[in-house]
Amino acid sequence: GDAVTLRLIGLSDSTVQNLLQRHLQGQATLSSGEIARMKNVGLTEGQVLERINQGMTDQEAEKEVKARENARNHYGTGFTRIRGRRR
């Protein structure tokens, strides 16, 4: 089930195989839901895999996803003062 979910997220076969091997060896991996959320906020497959190899937990991934969502949602909403007359 996990392999199918990871494949539907858009990960390559080699990455799916790598994640399944890590899971079978008992090493820490992110849940498929967190991987999907990380892909949705703009991380590439390589960046997600890098974070997994560093031992990122689901809680740490949740914090990063929330920070990226907040940054994306508030991008370009700052007030800019325009001085001078309008033409």
Keywords:
87 residues; single chain; elongated; mainly alpha
Task: Please characterize this protein's 3D structure.
It is a single chain. The protein is an all-alpha fold. The protein contains five helices and no strands. The longest helix is centred in the C-terminal third of the chain and has 16 residues, at 58-73. The protein is elongated, with a radius of gyration of 18 Å. The N and C termini lie far apart (62 Å).
Layout of secondary structure:
Blueprint: H1 2-9, H2 13-24, H3 32-40, H4 45-53, H5 58-73
Helix pairs in contact: 1-2, 1-3, 3-5
Globular, elongated, flat, extended or rod-shaped: what is the shape?
A: elongated
Number of helices: 5
Report the major sheet.
Answer: none
Low-confidence stretches: none
Q: What structural category characterises the helix and strand content?
A: mainly alpha
In total, the number of strands is 0
Helix content: 55-70%
- CA gyration radius, whole angstroms: 18 Å
Q: What is the mean predicted local confidence, pLDDT?
A: 86
Element order: H for helix, E for strand: HHHHH
Strand content: under 5%
Report the end-to-end length measured between terminal Cα atoms: 62 Å
Quick synopsis:
With 87 residues, the chain is mainly alpha-helical.
